[in-house]
Amino acid sequence: MKTNRLGLLSVLMLVVQLTACNSDKKESTVKTTVTPPIPSISFDVVATHLHDTAAFTEGLLMHNGKLYESTGSPLEMENTKSVVGIVDLQTGKIDAKVEINRAIFGEGITFLNNKLYQLTYEAKVGYIYNARTFKKTGEFPLPGKEGWGLTTDGTHLIMSDGTDKILYLDSVSLKPVKTLLVQDTNGPVRNVNELEYISGYIYANVYTTNYIIKIDPATGKVQGRLDLSALTRSARSQNKNALELNGIAYDSASGNVYVTGKFWPNIYAIRFSY
């Protein structure tokens, strides 16, 4: 019995050794996958212009050679207004063409098919204006959580709602026809804010950060990122009340992109590889 027990023990020890050896071999063949970081997009500041430090910036865009800005109006900030107008780059002042009740809170804007479209924050409604006279011609219900950023690819209205979603709206019915989920290497990217469509990609501010991300409209994946921390620091050094980076406007004539933020003292013209 003793001999049998010793033999059985030897067999068990051999099985354990073989199992451990096979386990080591399996572990040695497992490849470690390293997720590449989001590529950084370098940029140059080519010009600095004045900006109204009372403007709570929600949208920025170029249209017919003029820079338009949309502002919001937090009720706790009594001097703010919800307006849409043309920015005088010499003074930074906004020549208001549209002003809505400040309790409504204006958000992103875009032009499409001779119309100006404006989102609102929590009212769940968008406004439509004649692009030449700025007379209000209609309203439409907003899908999604809230109204944040707005742009166009020339066919659809493209809006963000403060989540990781970007919604495409039909230009006639103004109903959603596509939802894009924004993702980087860490997963969903939330707080997608002000939008601009540049050379086939969607560029977006990420609310409360100093980043502008480049989004592939076919997949929703982030393809690159601009870090504008230096511009944010510059704005806050000049105006202690300066808040988040917000506002992207592409000038196809010059190739420059205008960026600014809420209560920033400057609008910066930057240039980078799209």
From TrEMBL:
It comes from the Bacteria. Keywords: Signal. Residues 1-20 form the signal peptide. It holds the Pfam family Glu_cyclase_2. PANTHER family: GLUTAMINYL-PEPTIDE CYCLOTRANSFERASE (PTHR31270). This is Glutaminyl-peptide cyclotransferase.
